[in-house]
Amino acid sequence: MTTVVPTSEEDPVLPVVRFTAELSWADAGPEVAEPHVTRLCMEAQECMVRGRWLDLASLMLTSAEIVFSKVSDKDLECIFTVICNLVSRLENPNEELEVAKLISTKITQQPTDKPAMRLKILFNLYNLLEGPDSRFFVYMQALNLALNGTVSDHIVPSFKKIDSFLKDWNIGVKDQRNLFLAIANVLKENKSSGKDSFKFLTKYLATFSDEDSYVMSEAKDEAVRAIIEFVKAPDTFQCDLLDMPAVGQLEKDAKYALVYQLLKIFLTQRLDAYLEFQAANSTLLKSYGLVHEDCITKMRLMSLVDLGCSESGQIPYALIKDTLRINDDEVELWVVKAITAKLIECKMDQMNQVVIVSRCTECLFGQQQWHSLRSKLATWRGNVASLISTIQANKVVEEGSQGMAIRWDTELLEGILFLHDVARILRALLGLSCPSKGSCGIFCEAFCRQILTSAQIYTPVENIALDCGSSTSGNSAAPDGRQWTGDKDSPFAVIDGSGSRSVSASVQTHNSSFHQVPYMTARISKSEFTYMFPVTAGQKFIRLYFDPARYHGFDTSVYFFSVKVGPYMFLNNFTASFPAEQSRQASSIKEFCVNLMHNQTLNVTFTPSTVDSYAFVNGIEIVSMPTNLYYHSSLDHTGVPIIGQNAHFSIDNYTALQNVHRLNVGGPSISATNDTGMYRNWYNDIDYLVGGGVVPSNTSIKLEYDKIPEYSAPDNVYTTARSMGRNRTENLLYNLTWRLPVDSGFRYLVRLHFCEFDPSVKGTSDRRFRIFIDNKTADSAFSVIDEAGGNGKPTYMDYVVMIGNFNDKSEHSLFIALHPNDEFSGYTDAILNGLEVFKLNNSDGNLARPNSLPDPSTEGTERASPKADKSKLLFSIGFGGIGLFIVLVLLCSIIIWRHRKMKQNGSHYKPSCFCCFVDSYKGDSSAGAKNSSLPDELCRRFLLDEIKAATSDFHEALIIGVGGFGNVYKGFLDDGETIVAIKRLNPESKQGAQEFKTEIEMLSQLRHIHLVSLIGYCNDNNEMILVYDYMINGTLCNHLYDTTNDPLTWKQRLKICHGAAIGLNYLHTEVKYTVIHRDVKTSNILLDHKFTAKVSDFGLSKLDPKIDMVNTGVKGTWGYLDPEYARGHSLTEKSDVYSFGVVLFEVLCARKALDKRLSVEQMNLAHWVKKCIADGTLYQAIDPRLKGKIAPECLKVFVEIAESCIQDLGVKRPLMNDVMERLGFALELQESADSELVENNHGNDHSYPDIVFPVHHRINVDSEALDSDVIAVHTPIPESGSFVSSDMLSNTFKG
């Protein structure tokens, strides 16, 4: 029987009591529950009538707590809203406080049971309360709940209102102390609020004064914690902890005195003091979790700030270098870091090598600084009063009178200087707040981890072994003990494309040559599918496992598919059966190397090649590698020597590699688990060896890794080897040779591992030998001892070789051969310990040599019978032979026809359109940048925010050049690890989107040691920005004239010219389509740290698919412009040759190509040197600083080259290849003459005689041309374009 309690419809209290009571007693049955429910309702009604709200709240909470987990969150919120509303019925503040304590205490008893809901209830209660004491109590309870229930995110936003809360609560010092400490503890648990945690911890410590000595000891632990948090914080550089008594007490405490000393070092001293402290107390620092590298970074910045606070306002580069203990080229990087952290505002005077500081943040601004400021203000007030008095007493009645001397200038100067001082201090105060450097912190953490784990054998950050198609979770072990995780329900998502979903399949007949894991299952799909791996930034190994076995319902041996990662095509029309049949190496494992930028996801996409094909994979491995194990640092501009060329190749972070061979020469195979931590397989070399050789070993030798890191290769690689033996006569008759199959059309990185472990080989010339790669000489007298630095010291040598050409897709044999050098070697022998060969991606990101596509008629899930196969094979051979014959006949006919056509009309067809510039110039490309999982092609697309961060929001202190395109900034990417040049388009520039697009098109595909490397671009928000490698030595013209730089030596100038010629020849002859630069000049030849020439600025370049000329509008720079091109608008490679000839004379004479400050006769350099050569007076035009420094034979060759380049008619000019070779010859002549002169004079102090050139009557110099800015016209001009445009005479040429 149910008792109905009469209630007001407006009052929800009794229904809530009944509802909660019935739920509480529901398990006891109706007969037991009904009396209790009735009793509770009657008690509640009595409490309401008598106004006993505290008792009513207690009664309601008893039942409500029981049903907390029995009702929905919505019902629970309604119940406690009614309970909390009881406080609004109270008029007495003390009663309100008691009820608030009751409710909040009850709610926080079980903090881990629905903590978010409990916290929400407390917030509702807080908003219903009126008394400040009640509110403060409930807020403190909410803080404890947030901390114990790990729901700090819900309460952190309220901390922004703490100041207003404090005014409302009006609490005492002790309550404030508890509040600040509780907030600091909550923020400590909230990992994203470390800086705020330190702020409130400081507020807590500030509540203690000298009068609180009796309780101050309780703050010691928190004082230590505050110091450690300050030292750890990468973006907190200012505090007043030293002024706090709670912190000062640590100085006299033996347990914590060193921590206090550390704080004083950070706030009042410089890096050298910290380094001394660290050397003596490294264990203490580690015990507090302080990372030495992070501390050095912070101390460098704080030391730099301390330098900036000097009265002079200038900091010499040398002082920064010495104080921060850094290299010369790192000074500007650290200044930019300080600017970015808003510690200083300054300009970098690169000419005078000083930093001019306009504002600097005080590291410590406490009581002492305030007292100093007050004292200075008082002094200044007195000066101002004295100044006014002096002016009034010494007024000059008559204007201009000099009768009285007014002696107030000193006081006025003091006042003005102090105003500046006050302004600087106040600005420093405003610099207290610095932006969060979360990304920097992540980078530092990863970087430090990298250093620590790379000290000995490498421990990868990522070590993912995914057993595709398997449902196991971490307990699927391979025979080598390595754990593989199934891809089902793994954190690595499988995204299926349109069409059928990918499925798991188990092997039907297992290949015994493969391990069971990961080859027992596979993921197979008839449509595209993608694995997504959220990994950290950096360089990674990616290994793909394929077993050409038959799976239930599938036959993968005849199915073709492609594999792509970002812009890189790893495999194309690939079938696992081909490589597995052709190699003993279990080539079912394909290993690749890529680099990931920050915030990129590694996506591996498998795509069937035809409609009826399947894509499959058995296993995927992602393993981090040490930074620059196979790549090169952006600061290393040397690169790897290219075999057969006097050039180098840089393997930068935008290069993908595929390992094709990794051999332990002379030793046994080394399994992945016995590698140095990167799970690389090393195979024995016997199957690739051509001929004999002996196999020495020395496993007892203690290896010393002085030259290379220990993780470069396993010890076993360096303690075993293959050599030729000691038979001198026999060794000279053959080469120690390996034959390695590779694909044509790709560049390859060849790494040769060496270690001399023979005790008898100690000297650098004991064993020298020649190294041949692809039948070309890589080194003519290589000595392992010379390269490694001694016996028992491993080293390796890297080379890049181009195999075939880009259009040749056949298989090629790469020969690596060693031969004794009996001229310089004690032993006629050679040795090799190991080798690695990597394929490098080509310009379109491709690494794949496609297999033949399958015949659609033979595709299916089951094979045909052997008899049918035989019949089809015979038919296919016959039909294929006839088809091949027809194709050959047609091909020959086409070739003959095209050859005749080219003779008659010349070849002319439009160049193909290729570039990574895929979006328009009007839209916002930021979304596109985010969608790409790896850099777009070879060209990285930056967000505008990244560019602004790299340039400190285009800070004018970072401007390093100004050109026709706009300003060029020095930028710092990847937290300063990569220095770049950032060219930003000026909206008023006459160059625009077309030049911007052209530059990207060209440089995104061209990679050469003598071409500037384009790292990427940005076209967000109508900005057009290009990002290049930074060339520390600027442009060639900056070292020739109008400069304070030291003059270049003649040999340096020759090498620069030769390098630039190599780069231009590469553009003309070594790429698929000829590239005509169109703007060759000294300001477009950049110099790296070794003064290696880099041709730059391709905004005006033209792509010429092997045609004789391009009809185009005239563009270029006056003074360098080919006169034939200017007259007839016919652009050829010879136009670049003419411009380069002007560059050669610029280098020789050290003067501008066009200098309007000179007389008309000398204004145009090309015209003037022609006249000088004709008159026999060229020696007068040569740079005076080169007098006596040029060998006569070299100069004659050099002038002959330059003169031939600036012939008016293009047909009379040489090809760039000829220019390159002749400049190389000139360099050899100079070096030979220098060596001979040094030897004869027994020293470097030598001089060559001046050369008087004879008059060349064959040179026709038009006197009118010498008097004009316009190139003289010696031949009739066609009506079309029969005059030189006015644009040509203005500044519209792209400079």
Automatic annotation (TrEMBL):
InterPro entries: ANXUR1/2-like, eIF3m, eIF3m_C_helix, Kinase-like_dom_sf, Malectin-like_Carb-bd_dom, PCI_dom, Prot_kinase_dom, Protein_kinase_ATP_BS. ATP binds at residue 983. Component of the eukaryotic translation initiation factor 3 (eIF-3) complex. Component of the eukaryotic translation initiation factor 3 (eIF-3) complex, which is involved in protein synthesis of a specialized repertoire of mRNAs and, together with other initiation factors, stimulates binding of mRNA and methionyl-tRNAi to the 40S ribosome. The eIF-3 complex specifically targets and initiates translation of a subset of mRNAs involved in cell proliferation. The lineage of its organism: Eukaryota, Viridiplantae, Streptophyta, Embryophyta, Tracheophyta. It comes from the Eukaryota. The keyword Cytoplasm applies. The keyword 4Fe-4S does not apply. It is found in: Cytoplasm; Membrane. This is Eukaryotic translation initiation factor 3 subunit M. Belongs to the eIF-3 subunit M family.
